[in-house]
Amino acid sequence: MDEQTSPQDVTPELAVAAPEEAADLARALDLDETTVSTWLTRGIGITARRGAATAGLAHLVDDGGHAEVADLVLAVPDDDIAAALVQGAEQIATDLESRILVVSCMQSAPSPAYQRDGDDWVRVLPTRLVVSTAEAMHSLGATLATELHAGDIVLASGDLGAGKTTLAQGIGLGLGVEGPVISPTFVLARRHAGVDGRPGLVHVDAYRLGSAAELVDLDLDETMDRAVTLIEWGAGIAEDLGGSHLDIDIRRSGDPADETRVVYLEGFGPRWQDVDLSPLSELLLGATPDETGDNN
């Protein structure tokens, strides 16, 4: 470690603890070994380490659709470690397809996503979908379009080639907009008119934009009330464009030949507060798009 870097500046490393680690974790965190062993065998233990030192342990219990961080222990008080452990629990619970995460062992909210429920903090987790092909990504877009209304803002994130434009093409098909939906990389924004009173689609590529001010300069507000606004690469600059938005995070596997994508959908703001997107997985199985695109 650089002599100018304090231990608190090192990003904690998270891992799922194996049952045989119970004794070491108990010693490091001054806990009863039997208690730790029970946590690791009847639930999921998430450890946080800074360097070689154990900094904390979270005990996650998943009950099929409902998960809970029942215990969280830190070697020393550290808000960053606590937040990292809760984020790790969120990721694991989401991948287990739980809809709700309860944190019952913290006095303050782990993040703004949580609401108080009695003595607990509760949040709705992102919806996780496994999309196996470009055709399935296109179908997801067409299926998602049935949930979208004029005025909705959708932020699509993912590496180059993850499938953002393919998703946008499916949304355009589902909305029934005019014109082919192609990447707006060089023109920044393409506007597709709606048909028969249905919402249009404004398709934005924010890859080359450096700030929210540059996004505002595209005059998206002129069409926002009568169209779905889909912004690729919008994370970090477009969240405040409207009062609500839907985040779509597309993650690819490490194998370039593998078309499988894992898609996380999470709504923010009052528009999405009571919207359950989990049925999309079942609807997706029955969707048959009229045309497909490549994963772009």
TrEMBL record:
GO molecular function: ATP binding; hydrolase activity; metal ion binding
Compartments it resides in: Cytoplasm
Matching InterPro entries: P-loop_NTPase (IPR027417), T6A_TsaE (IPR003442)
Gene3D superfamilies, per the entry: P-loop containing nucleotide triphosphate hydrolases (3.40.50.300)
UniProt keyword terms in alphabetical order: ATP-binding, Cytoplasm, Hydrolase, Magnesium, Metal-binding, Nucleotide-binding, tRNA processing
Leader sequence residues: none
Any one GO BP annotation for this protein: tRNA threonylcarbamoyladenosine modification
Taxonomic superkingdom: Bacteria
Cellular component terms (Gene Ontology): cytoplasm
Function per UniProt: Required for the formation of a threonylcarbamoyl group on adenosine at position 37 (t(6)A37) in tRNAs that read codons beginning with adenine. Is involved in the transfer of the threonylcarbamoyl moiety of threonylcarbamoyl-AMP (TC-AMP) to the N6 group of A37, together with TsaD and TsaB. TsaE seems to play an indirect role in the t(6)A biosynthesis pathway, possibly in regulating the core enzymatic function of TsaD.
Family that this chain belongs to: Belongs to the TsaE family.
Name assigned to this protein: tRNA threonylcarbamoyladenosine biosynthesis protein TsaE
Native source species: Cutibacterium avidum ATCC 25577
